[in-house]
Amino acid sequence: MTDQEHFEIKGDRALSSGDTDKLGFRQVSRRIAASLVDRASQDGFVVGIEGAWGSGKSSLLFLIGDELRKLPSTRRPSIINFRPWLIGSRDALITGLFSDLSSELEKFALEAGDATPLYKSKAQEASKALRSFMNGLSRTGAAIEVVGEASGWGPAKLIGKSVRAIGDITRGESASPQLSELKDKLVKSLRELDHRFIVTIDDVDRLEPAEVIEILRLVRSVVDLPNVIYILCYDSEILAQSIERAAGVKSGKAYLEKIVQLTAMVPQPEPFQLRQWFTDELHQIASVKDDDELSRLRAVIDHEGGRQLLTPRSVIRALDAIRFFWPALRDIRADLADLVWLQIIKDGNPALYRWIEAYCATFSAISVGAARIEEAEKSKELSALFEAVPEGHFNDMMYRYYFAEQLPGVEVDYAEEGRGFSIFQHVSEHERDLAVRAGRLSSPDHYRLYFALAAPSHALTNDEFATIWEASNAGPQQTSDSLLELHSAAQSGSLTKADVLLERLKGQVYEDLSAKQCENFLTAFSNMMDEAYRIRPFDHFWINSFWERAERLVPFFISNLEDDDRKRVLRLMFEHGDAIGWLTSMFRRETFAHGRYGERPKPEEEWLFQEDELDEINAILLERYRSMSFQDVISSPKPVSLLFAWMQGGDKEGPCNLIAGHAESDAGFLDALEGLTSWINSSDRGRFKVLKRENLESFMDLDGTTARLQGLVDDPQLGERARRIVEVLKLGNEY
Question: How far is CA 479 from the centre of its chain?
């Protein structure tokens, strides 16, 4: 996929030729296609593809058709895509279906020219029999209705209503015998032909109730023919309601069971798969400005995405909304986490989205002194918030905390008899100014911009689980080797089998791990995480990377160790672990989480390490950083992050001196500048490198560096490198 394609609005449409199967439906469609051809009865047959709106029924139907078309010519059926919602009347439905079937049968008869004379004759006979039956219908001026009670199906009966359009197809044929004889002849011809015709009918549940009944009557009685298989796509709950209204029966589901002989459910993707798909696509669209924004974006996708991104359609709609809104918001350096939070909510719960919009407008007016709000109005607005969400929506304390974090003046009410939130609380000028500078949703100067632009599981096999389980009992080296092997096995998008394993450990298995296994996993992580990046690069400055998943497991693993073992293992990891990049990533996370750097400390329950543990880790890593050469630092997966960690750990001079020493020569000077660059993604430029001003001035003298760099632009040996760095420095000021 090209960069431009990542930024195009996709729209709510099914998969088509050339699209990527994000959720693994291909394997399911292949099996269904094989069953339709090899194991279905020769009699008329109706298959139902069931799934909720947005679950991917149409995509699965496309893939089934695609698999059928790939079959060898001797097994390949004829496929008719009948779309009744494009047809206006009952008679036209009959006409349309017969017309499509006739066209496909005549096409098959023509293509049988290279077959044996007998088979060609059978194909021509079947085509003629269908035309005769259609002509007979036209000449009697008859339409078709079904005799019998609504819950059962009887023989077709003809009544005197015009179906003149069918005659247009067969005009010029001779007068037909009795219709029953013509139908019998058609049935016999199709049975002898022994060729499958598969009729797909999508979105049956979107028809009007009366149209639903007509379609079901057509496929079960009127055009119930040998070797003709119907595939109907629908949401069974919605379709049953339409049947009950139109047919006047008590149970629409029981009625439907008389029509559909076999159902296949659309595979339900796992929640983390949908969130991973979302984050993979989001990564191609936009980038964050700093660690704080990235941390909040992770929380948004985990907590709000976990509730709202429940179907493929919800993922596509949220991504399309971001593709539409982000270019304009990016230009004013708006906050990506805020936008993603709003767009996920807007699609999943429009009422909550409108409440947030109204709240932000009111709070903004209060913030600038244009309005005030009384306690009674606060109580009314809080009631409106709870009315906008399902009962129990805010019961989870962690979710409640992150919801409050997104909005100005919202605080969590932790009291047992409290109301869940306190709203319209005082916000300090300092906090307000921070929001304004960051272009946040909580900024009174910016909030309106956010509104006015107004499967099958990718599970590991039993053998793979057994292998990693055996390795985690054997030792850290075996565990490391097994993890790297799984990391090399891609699943979907950026997922690997190692990602899936870590998700399973986090969600289901870790409580059953022995202390020995926990120690081996922790030690393996500390040794192989940097190598995992080198073998299969991923963006570690993003959501749900392999590094991120491993970090989330650390507190689970160390909680299973005795106190002495915990201290010993942590010391072993940070003193001797080869994965200095991953260890540094954890260290920086904890430095911010504990409030030792930055202004947004995390609750203690979100810390990975205790205060005394972080003290020891800090001392260990500072000693390791001081022993590293410039080349050691630049060779790490995140050199800029390592330099900041060194500085934020309490030694500001150390990284500056290391860079200054290497930059004594002009070539070394350019090495240093290149080492301070970083990658970003932009919706208009794609992925490219920048040299951010804050990175540069944190470790080097900005004015002196800029002057020295300009002096090298015309150097015969180093000029080309210098000019490239000048360009990435300019980009760093723009993005």
Answer: 30
Reported as a single tens digit per residue, the pLDDT across 612-669 is: 999 999 999 999 999 999 999 999 998 999 999 999 999 999 999 999 999 999 999 9
Query: Of 339, 409, 419, which Cα lies nearest the Cα of 371?
Result: 409
The C-alpha atoms of residue 12 and residue 15 are separated, in whole angstroms, by 10
Q: Using an 8 Å Cβ cutoff, are 609 and 583 in contact?
A: no
> Judging by beta carbons within 10 Å of its beta carbon (0-12, 13-18, 19+), is residue 633 exposed, middle or buried?
buried
Burial class of residue 495 in the structure, from the number of CB atoms within 10 Å of its CB (0-12 exposed, 13-18 middle, 19+ buried):
buried
Quickly list H helices, 197-270: 209-217, 236-247, 252-257
Residue 265's DSSP bridge partners are: 50
Q: How far apart are CA 391 and CA 414, in angstroms?
A: 18
- Cα 115–176–126 angle (5° rounding)? 15
Strands 421-422 and 411-412: antiparallel
DSSP run (H or E) holding 17: none
Give the tens place of pLDDT for each residue, 507-550: 554 447 889 999 999 999 999 999 999 888 776 556 678 898 89
Q: At what angle do helices 462-474 and 515-535 cross, to 10 degrees?
A: 110
**Distance between CA atoms of 350 and 311, rounded to whole angstroms?**
16
| Cα 445 to Cα 243: distance, rounded to the nearest angstrom | 52
Look at residue 481 and give its three-state secondary structure.
helix
Residues 233 and 206: their CA atoms lie apart, in Å, by 10
Q: Provide the 8-state DSSP code for 496.
A: B
3-state class of 348 per DSSP? Answer: helix
In 3-state terms the chain splits into helix, strand, coil percentages (rounded to 5) of 60, 5, 30
SS3 letters across 103-125 = HHHHHHHHHHHHCCHHHHHHHHH
Strand stretches in 472-595, DSSP E = none
| Among candidate residues 242, 232, 298, the one with its CA nearest the CA of residue 264 | 232
Tell me the three state secondary structure of residue 55. coil
In whole angstroms, what is the distance from residue 314 CA to residue 344 CA? Answer: 8
Q: Which residue has the tokens 């057994």?
A: 466
Q: Between 497 and 698, whose confidence is greater? A: 698
**What is the phi/psi pair of residue 270, to 5°?**
-75, 145
Structural domains for the chain: 25-129+189-265 (3.40.50.300), 271-452 (no CATH), 458-546 (no CATH)
Distance CA(689)–CA(282), nearest Å, equals 18
> Interior CA angle at 561 toward 560 and 564, to 5°?
160
pLDDT digits (tens, 9 = 90+) for 117-153: 666 788 788 878 878 877 776 655 444 443 333 333 3
DSSP 132-192: HHHHHHHHTT-EEEE-S-TTS---EEEES---HHHHHHHTTPPPP--HHHHHHHHHHHHHH
Phi-psi region of 352 (alpha: psi -120 to 50; beta: other; left: phi over 0): alpha
User: pLDDT by residue (tens digit) across 345-361?
Assistant: 998 899 999 999 999 98
Please identify which residue in the block is written with the tokens 């009992």. Answer: 473
Per-residue pLDDT at 676? 92
